[in-house]
Structure of GMP synthase [glutamine-hydrolyzing]:
Amino acid sequence: RILILDFGSQVTQLIARRLRESGVYCEVWPYTANIERIAGFGAKGIIFSGGPASVTDMASPRPADGVFALNLPVLGICYGQQVMAAMLGGLVEGGHGREFGRAEVTVTGACAITQGVWAPGAVETVWMSHGDRITVLPPGFEVVASSEGAPFALIADVERRYFGTMFHPEVVHTPHGAALLRNFTHGVCGCTGDWTMAGFRAEAVAKLRAQVGGGRVVCGLSGGVDSSVAAVLLHEAIGDQLTCIYVDHGLMRAGESAQVVATFRDRFNITLVHRDASEMFLGALAGVTDPEVKRKTIGRLFIEVFEEEQHKIGGADFLAQGTLYPDVIESVSATGGPSVTIKSHHNVGGLPAGMRMALVEPLRDLFKDEVRALGRELGMPEEIVGRHPFPGPGLAIRIPGEVTREKADLLRLVDTIYLDEIRKAGLYDAIWQAFAVLLPVRTVGVMGDGRTYDMACALRAVTSTDGMTADVYPFEMSFLGRVSARIVNEVRGINRVTYDITSKPPGTIEWE
Ligand code: XMP
């Protein structure tokens, strides 16, 4: 295993991703971790991430004293390189102009990191992002690659196994970056790359059994990937000690509730409480048009119903949550200031704040794509494991204005046709999320010889890697035309279809 000390770079998580992709288990800790904790982790090597600070600043972040005395290989990236150089007797200075983006470096030497990846004499593309630079190397270091703007682009102390890059090997814009990192973890640190999902599964099952003992666990199931995988993993570990509660708010996509019940109860034999609370939710949403009030209403009711059901089954000792690794990483934010609430998110995994139960978080070490891989390892169907994200408040936030059962039914019909065509065209997996929105306007149309005055809908499809930013999916016009024709012909009450071409930002993915 490898330890990544985070100095606050935007891309620290990518280091972890690259390492895990090459079969190396790693964790990201804040740079403030003390030396006992670091020593106790048992890492085979340490990586210092980049960060926004400047080493030339007296108060700049430093890793714990004694980190070099552990005699472990160290790779410093960007700020990490500079902090390493400063601590080992080199000199770092500012004022050389900032360098951002793609750059070319010449390989002037060789070391374990470049072996078999960068040949001496070659010119290689890297991605730079820095202000300061090293001006005097610490004793023992030599230059392995350089450019005019970055004379110490890659440096190495071969003896002590310390390496530093001024560029970011973890981003895809450094084409051989993953191979360089692999040389560090496998070549220098001696990792074997045997961290696999099968291994994780066995380890996680053992850990869950040890944590839960003979206790009882409840798990809120949403039908989404995270809670579904958490439930199946828990069931493998503790069998009937697990009860899943599926609160059906009546705002799911067509056929989804039946599918959840069939998958978990029938196929996986999991004890499942299916509570149809659609009357209650739709009743509470009557007359509500404000997006935040909708979200809060649904969130509050969800907790109420969940608590009711969990009392009915006689309570439990543990509450399972589908927390993922990105939620867990202790963030080293440069600004740390309060951010504006764009939307109050409601998530089955992160709900019941007032419940007095211990937490079980079987996925807290995994990234989203690793959760999918684990689901496949557990034999879960692709319809669940590869499913597009779906928001906790469901179709309510895809129906601007008041939500009614009739509108939800209409939207389900539109959504089904749209997704059906996307699947038929083989586009489902290329899209992060695709869905329809029912617009609160009526427009005039003509069908046959008659006038229509019906509702309009919008289609949305985006690509994204984490939902934080998104691009519009560039469908062929012929595809959109086909979908539009089917919707208007097959869904009575809709006579107009539009395609939302807003990216995020400035738009958000959902409409509310
Ligand atoms: P926005 O609309 O904020 O959405 O661009 C980003 C991603 O988050 C999903 N989303 C939610 N997920 N509970 C969830 O679990 C919510 O309340 C919620 N609201 C939005 C959205 O579908 C997209 O994937």
Remarks:
- The chain has a mean pLDDT of 93.
- Residues 207-385 form a domain with the Rossmann fold fold (CATH 3.40.50.620).
